[in-house]
Structures are given as structure tokens and as C-alpha cells.
Amino acid sequence: MSRKIERLINLTIALLATKRYLTKKQIFSSVEGYEGTAETKERMFERDKDDLRNLGVVIELGSFDPLFEDEAGYRIAPEGYALDLGAITGIEIALLSLAAEAWKGAALDRSAHSALTKLRSIGVDSDLDALPALAPRLMATHEGFQIITTAISKRERISFSYLSQSYESELRTIEPYAIATKGSHWYVAGRDVAKSALRTFRLDRIDSEVIPSKDGSGYEIPPGFDLLASLDLEQSAHLATVDIRKGKAQLMRNAALSIADKGEWDRITISYLDSRSFIDLLLWHGDDVLLIAPESVRVELTTRVGEIIDLHV
Amino acid sequence: MSKSAQSPLSRTARLLDLVPYLATHQGIELSRLARDFSVTEPEMIADLTTLWMCGLPGYTPLELMDLSFESGFVTIRNASTLSNPRMLTEEETIALLLGLDLVIESLPSERGDLRLIAIDLVARLSSRVNVPTKLSAKPSIPGSVRAIIQDALHKKLALEILYHSSYSDTVTSRVVTPIEFRDENNCEYLWAFCQRVGGFRSFRLDRIQSAKLNEQTIVEQGTLVEEKAEKISYTLRSHSRPRAIMERFSIDKSDYAGDLPAVAFSYEWIQRSILACSGSVELVQPASARALIVRAARSILERYKSG
Questions:
Q1: A2-81: CATH topology
Q2: Which residues touch A182 (CB under 8 Å, ≥6 apart)?
Q3: Which of 2.60.40, 2.40.128, 2.30.30, 3.30.420 is the CATH number of B143-223?
Q4: What chain A residue is nearest to B205 in terms of C-alpha separation?
């Protein structure tokens, strides 16, 4: 096993150090580790190329002179191999470290850690003292998380079973566009293939493995697509006026667009997505809140409260 | 260490990343190096031994990498070909981009300077990854609150927090002795001894409105005995919107059949939650709490009729 690793490292060094393309013959005669019959060497080399490609090392195929049909050769272009973020400062390294450390114990922990190792190898010391005391943390423990991020970068469709509002598992296939988190939930958005429309899914409602598939891969993601902005757009669909008791209904107070003092009560305006979940929120606060407008939602609310009474008398 | 970290491919990746790391950390302690790469010391020695056999074609001492690690400190020479860190993979870039967005959102508003630097980093990283979308991470908890709690845990100091209890819908100031962070149902909690109630309580981090160190109060952690909060068992019946009910009452999927068993720590919370399902759910047991729900619902209805 060690010999294979040695050979892969030696091949990387040889292809990276050369300015000219190395032919297979040159590789086999100079890079240590290629042994056996011509056929064996050939097979070894093909596998090694695949392995390096899987590690993200790009091997270029080219020839010395485009005018002559030379035997093709191989090399690794340093600009395709090495990390290049331009000149980087200690503060930037500190910010990136904070970004990587936010993943501790969560889905992309391993990738964040290896990214951090590469950044630390640049040789610029992290200037952590220049930052205020912050310890942001990403909570992402869903098993499918990594599969989804990989699928987004590879433009691969994913399928999973999703708990519908009626709590039934439905099989969904989407072309994932983006993943984002807000209010302690993670969301993935993409084009639902069967519905041929944009849909957003909450990760904790996925109740199966996430299966990537090569079918229909290579789709386009709308440039600049912003998942949270599209959620926010929906969220601010309607406006309501609510009276809330002083010192109460903290959650609604925080979400208020405006607050006016009315003595014992405050009058706020607030936006809501759909009337039912807005009524849920109002009823959580019992008689500390009173919906003033819109009238249609007031009517719906009193009907719902009547239903609660009917269920419990 | 997991088996996958020892597969030929992940070892090769590690060796490629080890060289630039060593080049900028000459003389690093072997034990620290092993820790930095999440492997054991024997595994790290095996890696270094393999690396020692590698170099440019020719493979004479002139071309091989020159590693020394017998003394417990590691140095590397003659490794310039591999001495640049490798490009970030797409997954590494995605991890950093999401992390950076969280950092940006967590920065205090007066640090616009850092915000600009971070936004510039996002632009530089984004151009290197095949993802044209904005990767967003909005923190549900102010980054500074967690930093202060971490500081208190580290220094074994008490904390003064302003806490919004959603059960009673009140904001109270409390002095607490922090014990640890806990994750439950996708939320992060602080498990702490609360001086105000004289017992252990868990505080949802996103409901802590502010926190500061309280240097005066020192509590011997050894004297704190954990007590169990009293659990209330109750039963629900779903009439519509079952997913919302299962999520709101944190009922396990395996219990989804017929009447739903659930557990809570406060009658007030149960009552509020039933009301907040606006008729989708019925409290079956305990019967005594049904009457309270009817009373609360009637009082709401009265307000709307008179208002």
C-alpha cells in the first residue's frame, strides 16, 4: 500500500516539476514504482491518473508541438495545483479560521479542517487578536448534508423522501441550487423535476437517505440565486396590525415593522406569510395580543378558536 | 482513527498537504503535527517515513526530500516542488463560504472594516468554485453571546444573562453558573445552574438576549447536584396538519399512529402549544388540562367580541 502512495506522490512531483509534457515512456522510465510488463505499467498509470483526479489534482494532456503529431504527454500545471488566493493577510486568515471552526462537530467538519490546514500552510500567521470575540457555530448534522453540497457542486440530481404537510413520505427528485440556514433550520432549494418548478425543502423533513444520480446532470443554476432572499420574499407577503400588551409577546415585538405606544398596549405592524400560521402565532400569545386588521384574518381566527373550544368541551 | 483516513487515497492527500504544512512549520513537535492532521503519532511516523522515500526522478539524496523527525521535532528540506498548499476542493470552498457568511452576519455592526474584508474573501473564494449561488448562513444565535459563554466556561465564572422564556413570555435577568452546551432538536442550549430558581435549567441560546461575565459570583461546581425536572406526560390527537404537530411537540416518528404520547415540563407550555395549533390538535389527557384550554380559548374569544 505504501508503495502505491509513494508512486502517486512521485508521479505528482515529476509532473509538477516538469515544464515540458512527459510522455508515458519517459514517466515509466524515470518515475519510481512503475514495474512489470508494458501492459501492467499502462494499467497502473491509468489508475493513478484517476486517483489523482479524484484528489482534485488536474493532469493536463498535451504535446510538444501542435504542428506535429507527437506522442501526447502529461504534466500538472502549477496554477492548476496550488492554492492561489492572492496576497493574504493575518486578519484574512483569522476570519477564514473562524469560518472553518464554525463547522466543529457538524457536517462539513472534515472539509473545513482540511481547508484550514491548507490555509495555515500559506505561512501567514493568523491575527486572531484583531477580531472581536466571536464564536459562531453551524449546526448541521443531517446525514445528507454532505451529499447535497457535493451534488450542488457537481450539478447532480438528488432524490429523497420528504415528509409532506400531511406527514406522508413523498419521493422528490430535485436539481439542487443552493443550501442555506436560517433560524436553526437548514434549507435546500432546487428545481423539482416532477413539478418543473422551484421548491424549497427543510433538511430535517427529509426522512430517507439522499441519493445522488447522474441522470440529467449538468443542469444550470440561475446565477446569483439566493435561497434566503427567495424565502424572505414569500415571508413578507401580507401586513397585519396587532395590539400587544406591554412587556409581552417578545417574539412578535422582535419581528415588528413598526411599534406605536398606546399606553397599556403597543400597536405593531407585522408581516406574515399565510393566515393559518399567523393565527397559530397569535394564539400562542393567548390574550396578550389582539389582532386589529385584516378583518378576514380576524374572522378566521375566531372560527379557529371556536374549533378549539368544540374539541375540548 | 477511522479506516477511511488510512485508505491509500486519503493518505496520499494527507502527504501532499503535509509537505507545505511542514515547510511553514519547521521544527514542529511530532505530537502536535499528528494532532493537527487528526492521526495518531505512529500513523504520522508512517506518513513521514513514506514521504522520506519520495522526490524528483533520480531519487538520489540530491533529489529526495530531506526529512528529519527522530528527535520528536519535524523539519523538511528540499521539497520545493510540493511546498505550495494544494488548491481548495469544492467542498472545502463551500464549507468556508458558508462559514464566512455566518461570520459576516455575526460581526458587530461597528466592525464594518472586517465585514468588507470578509465580503472580499467571499468574492475571491466564490470565483474559484463552480457554484454561482449565494451560500447563506444566518446565525440564529449572536456569535458574541456564545463567545461570552465559552469564556465563562473556560474561566469557570458565573454569567449574568437576560433571558426570554417563551413558556411564560417574560424576559428575566438571571445569574447562572454555566455547565455545558447541549444540542437538542436542532437547537443549542446552555445547561446551567440558575441562582434565581436554585436549580439546573437549560437555556436556549437563541433566547439569551445578552450575556456578560459576573466576576463576583463563584460557585463551587462540585457542590452542584443535578436534579431532574418533573416531566408531564400527556396525550394528543391530531385532526389536521400532522407534520406541524409532530414537529411542534417533538414527537418521535415511530409514535405516529393513533393518539400521540408526548412529554413536556410545563402546563403553560402545553396550553400555549395547543392553542397555537388553532384547532389542528386536541389534548386528550390529562382531562384537567382540557378545561383550562377551554377557559383560555373562551377568554380570547371574549376579547374579539368586545374589541
A1: Arc Repressor Mutant, subunit A (1.10.10)
A2: A228, A231, B136, B138, B140
A3: 2.30.30
A4: A184
